[in-house]
Amino acid sequence: MPRILLARGDITVQRVDAIVNAANSSLMGGGGVDGAIHRAGGPEILKECRLLRAERYPDGLPTGEAVATSAGRLPARWVIHTVGPVYSRSTDRSGLLARCHTSSLGVADALGARTVAFPAISTGVYGYPLDEAATVAVRATLGAETRVEEVRFVLFDERAHSAFERALRAALDSK
Ligand code: ADP
């Protein structure tokens, strides 16, 4: 079970083995944390994403799955791209959101990454309520079978940070 740390700030400056990108299935970049990672990491990441699209994912990366590229100019060694679900009020997509975390940790294991930073996947443009997303993310991570030793959730603002604090406390209390 990985140790979970919470941090406020920008995921692109984290000194960890791998950072996770809340990508979209096109892998061609976008807004939010995806845009920030490509801007800070430089064109190398997009070049590798194009290759992945051409060779492995002609229809795009499916929701819940994860794939790695190098990290260009970022301090991390790898970027693990995963696609979170778009929030739906009528369908429970928490299984897909949980799978983003377990798939990303599986990719981290294959790379030999021991420290991994995650953003709050699906809580921006994809509309997931923060408390719900935080609960799913924390529980999936604590339940994951992985050799990753440290998972650092990097929260961009105070609202996200306090949602993850509540979720982590609740998950640890219920153990
Ligand atoms: P999604 O499409 O999965 O909802 P977004 O990028 O729109 O992804 O948002 C996911 C979360 O990432 C949001 O909580 C947003 O505030 C946060 N975020 C945006 N930029 C950064 C950054 N540079 N570092 C960490 N988190 C970020």
Structural overview:
The protein has 175 residues and is an alpha/beta fold. It has a single domain, classed as 3-Layer(aba) Sandwich (Leucine Aminopeptidase, subunit E, domain 1). Helix content is 40%, strand content 19%. The protein is built from five helices and six strands. It has a six-stranded mixed beta sheet, sandwiched between helices. The longest helix is centred in the middle third of the chain and has 18 residues, at 94-111. It starts with a strand and ends with a helix. The model has no long low-confidence stretch (mean pLDDT 97). The site of adenosine-5'-diphosphate (ADP) has 20 residues, from α1. Residues 10-12, 22, 32-34, 36, 84, 119-126, 154, 156, 160 line the site of adenosine-5'-diphosphate.
Structure characteristics:
19% strand, Leucine Aminopeptidase, subunit E, domain 1, 5 helices, 175 residues, single chain, binds adenosine-5'-diphosphate
Indicate how many domains the architecture comprises: 1
Strands, total number: 6
Any idea what the CATH architecture is? 3-Layer(aba) Sandwich
Name the hetero compounds present. adenosine-5'-diphosphate
- Low-pLDDT parts are none
Q: How large a portion of the residues is in β-strands, by DSSP E?
A: 15-25%
Give the ordered list of helices and strands.
EEHHEEHEHEH
- What is the spatial order of strands in the main beta sheet? 1-6-5-2-4-3
The first-to-last residue Cα distance is 13 Å
